[in-house]
What does this fold into?
Amino acid sequence: MRDKKVYSLAGDTTTAHRYAVVGNAERFLKHKHAYKAWEALRQFGCVVYPVAYDLQRLEGYKVYPQLSSLKDKVYVVVPCLRAELLTDLIAQAQECGAGYVWFQEGNWTEELQKQADEAGIQVIRGCILKHKLYPKPWAYFHPCYWHGLKSPKAPKRRR
It folds into this structure.
């Protein structure tokens, strides 16, 4: 049996950690950022749970209504909603035992940072998609390729 190769992502996070991607039905079903983040983490070989209060299943996977309903402890929470919808995110992340909250572009606020600091949760800022390998020559047309030029990359897991 081969050992699973572990890749470093942002901060101290790796592909060996458990992730929870928080979104809503629109952000998952219309293949917006929550779906893309969830899919990228799955392709990296991570254990990743979709969390959306208004969705039951996503491509055959169970979607959890909130972070507290997860059975397993997650290490990283990835919110993919606007900041005004994340008022109790840090408390929920602390309740589920997360050590990190990985804010995507545009949803970090100073108030959420302050709550995370008080709760002892580390914050990562930046897009997950910049850690993805994009096939060339089409990679040059993808903005995440350019944003992540110097970021560590995690290749797709072979199935």
